[in-house]
Amino acid sequence: MIVCSCNVLSDHDVRATMHSEGGPARNPGEVHRCLGCSRKCGRCMHTIKNIMNEALCGADHRHTGS
Ligand code: FES
């Protein structure tokens, strides 16, 4: 799923930055930097933060209803 339409970043791209060699990205701005781009309109910031939180908390199934 594309989460940043300005830079065409997917949720998979965001999760990959959580396992980068230089250490995990700590905020949405670092996610963009890790992926070689920069924030533009900023509409994706909330979604990226949610993906990061889910990745940091591990497989959190509380919101899936399962
Ligand atoms: S949607 Fe990510 S910067 Fe615009």
Automatic annotation (TrEMBL):
InterPro entries: BFD-associated_ferredoxin (IPR052371), BFD-like_2Fe2S-bd_dom (IPR007419), BFD-like_2Fe2S-bd_dom_sf (IPR041854)
Domain BFD-like [2Fe-2S]-binding: 2-54
Keyword check for Secreted: no
Source taxon at top rank: Bacteria
Protein keywords: 2Fe-2S, Electron transport, Iron, Iron-sulfur, Metal-binding, Transport
Gene3D superfamilies: BFD-like [2Fe-2S]-binding domain (1.10.10.1100)
Pfam annotation, one family: Fer2_BFD
GO molecular function per UniProt: 2 iron, 2 sulfur cluster binding; metal ion binding
Entry keyword Ligase: no
Family of this protein: Belongs to the Bfd family.
Protein name: Bacterioferritin-associated ferredoxin
